[in-house]
């Protein structure tokens, strides 16, 4: 009975909740664009707009949210851990800075790289299940899953049964290679841009909602641009299953065959959709996270609820 009050009274509990709310806001706001990105990457099926029209006409609007249960179910823990790991590592890489001062940009970047690598352990299986669900009813009929396995839990069980634990972690290496540098750019860009947009806010925590949205959105865009070719390769590797023809024998083989067959442009296919989604999603993530912290915390350098209300009014 006393678990939740005690949990929310702790720093860990409040940051955990804020991280979870931020992640949920990001997924719900950007999932349809993510579905379009995955379908663009997996095959040469046209522009995002043409895919959108075709999906809505043939499968219904709900198809844009297919597979969302997998990331949404895990996002509270995953996103909370990402922000917790980042906070710990940013101090560890810049221990000379006072606890009342923000970490240096070098510490921010290194902490982001470490965070990206560690969070891949949680993210890789979730994205595998999500991609398998998003690619149902595409031009690759062999990727369709049995009717009994249309939900994320059913798909995960099916993968474990037919491919084992190794199959559930298909694409883990490419996920680490993608996420480690991407998170370095992600956190560095957010911290740098929020300071440029609102000088002194890294220490005072007094930035407006507009600053959170723009800095978070630009952080997402920067992280995707730096890693996008690796994301295309990851999608193609994870889209394979035992029931479909094995096109690629690893990361290098996938990269070589993709470029040979579709040209270098294939490595940037769907980038426009990904960038649009990244701005929306990460603006929502950082805004929800920062606002939640200000509502849950009421001490130190973190704003009170009255301050955030004033910032909302000013925007």
TrEMBL record:
Record-level Gene Ontology MF annotations: transmembrane transporter activity
GO CC annotation: mitochondrial membrane
Keyword flag Nucleotide-binding: no
Extent of the Solcar repeats: 10-92, 103-196, 207-295
One Pfam family it belongs to: Mito_carr
Keywords: Membrane, Mitochondrion, Repeat, Transmembrane, Transmembrane helix, Transport
Membrane topology of the entry: Multi-pass membrane protein
Name of the molecule in the record: Mitochondrial arginine transporter BAC2
Natural source organism: Herrania umbratica
